[in-house]
Structures are given as C-alpha cells and as structure tokens.
Amino acid sequence: MVDLTEAFPTALRDTARLAVAALTPAISDRYYEPKNERQIIRVCSDDVWLPGRLHDKVYQDHAYYDAGPFQAFEAIADNGKLTSLQEQVFFCLLTRHHNGFVREAALKRIIAVDEPWVVPYVVQLASEYVFEILVVIGQNLDQLNSSLYGSFLRDNPAYFAKVKQRITSYWNVYYRWHDYTGPHGQVHHLWREGYVGHDISERFKAMESGTPSGKSTSL
After folding, report:
1. What's the helix, strand, coil split of the chain in %, to 5?
2. Strands 187-188 and 180-181, bridge-based pairing
3. φ, ψ dihedrals at 143, nearest 5°
C-alpha cells in the first residue's frame, strides 16, 4: 500500500499519519501512479508527492452532484477524532479524489488555510477542468496568502509552467467555442478575458513575481 504521508513535507508526516490511517481503508490501491510517474514538487524544502487521483472503494459510479460520497468521508473524519490540523491533511488528500463533487467540497474546507503544504492542492485544482471548482478558487483569490503562493510557485517553475498550460488548454478544449451551462441552469460566457481560469492564472503569475494584482472580477 502506498504511504500517503509522502504527499506532505517531512515535518508534517508524523502528524499526518492518523489522518492517512483514517482515509486509507476507504481508498482503492488499484489506481496509484507508479513511482516513476509521480508528480514531485518542492514544499518546505522537501520533495513531496502530489497524488494524481485517489479512487475510493465504494462510490466509484456516483454522479458528480451526489453529496453522498463527501458526507461519508466527513463521517470518517469525525469518527477518526482528528485534530484540526489532521482534518486539513485529510481534506487536502480528498482534493485528489476521482469525483469532482468531492474535490470541490474538500477544496472549500482547505482553501482558507494558511499553510504552505495546502498551497499545491489548491494550485493543482486550478489546472483541472471542472468549472465549478475554478469558480471556488476565483471567489477566494483575494483571501489567498500571496507570500505562500508566490514562494511555492517560484520553487516549482516547471510545475507552474505546466499549470498555466493546462489552464489554457482546458479552456480551449471545453469552453472556448461555446457558453457553459452550470448544473442549475446558469449560463457562463467564457471568452478568454472573462474566463475564471484566466483570472486565476494571471493572479498566480502576479504572486510568483511578488506583485499581486488587483481584485479579480471574472467568474
């Protein structure tokens, strides 16, 4: 079985073990990427593994907007009697879950946390394709710790280049040529300058350079 504490800096791993122990029984080990294909990033001067996708053993086929899987994970966290810090670790890992609703709900639990090891889990979600997740990040840009994010992005230039490329690529493939209708019928006109992913990318670039821009307006 893969040791998910490797997804956090060395100084945090002892604290993270209980959170990982609570989560691991619910996670399938069939889908872990091989070690030679892992995304390795620098966090707190450590090499840290950023997991690709974590698949659970029960809720493989539930619809995106089924709240059941996330509620089940919340119950696991509650039953595990985790500390606040361990809960943050737990929900960071759930941002790598295969179900987009779980990723979105987990993001809402960690995005306000000012810890350097939380930053890559938010940045990674910005590089993915679920519009509702991008909206959550966009709505919280003004609350992100520019110093922590800027430091992480400067420490990981190749990774950040990939993030920016993915933001543009997903916009081009999924959103460039048509409006996007959300799950409750909201219509979003996603030309480039009005696309929240573009707004996030520009803000991250400003954080990297140490010159945060003004408030975001594109959702």
Report:
1. 55, 10, 35
2. antiparallel
3. -100, -5
Which residue is listed with tokens 């992913």?
Answer: 197
Query: Which residues does residue 42 pair with via DSSP β-bridges, in sequence order?
Result: 47
This prediction's pTM: 0.87
Instruction: Compute the distance between CA of residue 136 and CA of residue 214 in angstroms, rounded to an integer.
Output: 18
Indicate the burial class of 112 (C-beta count within 10 angstroms; 0-12, 13-18, 19 or more): exposed
Could you give the CA distance from residue 48 to residue 42 in angstroms, rounded to a whole number?
6
| Residue-level pLDDT at 179 | 66
**Cα separation, 92 vs 106, whole angstroms:** 7
Q: What is the spatial distance between Cα 169 and Cα 127, in angstroms, rounded to a whole number? A: 9
- What lies within 8 Å, CB to CB, of 3 at 6+ separation is 20
Residues across the chain? 219
What CA–CA distance (Å, rounded) separates 185 from 198? 23
CB atoms within 10 A of CB 93: 23
Show the tokens assigned to 202. 């520009």
In tens, the pLDDT along 12-55 reads 999 999 999 999 888 887 667 777 789 999 999 999 999 988 88
Closest C-alpha to 93, from 216, 199, 2:
2
Which helix (H) or strand (E) segment holds residue 106: the answer is helix 100-110
HSE, CB side, 13 Å, CA atoms: give it for residue 47: 3
Instruction: Look up residue 71 and give its two tokens.
Output: 């509620």
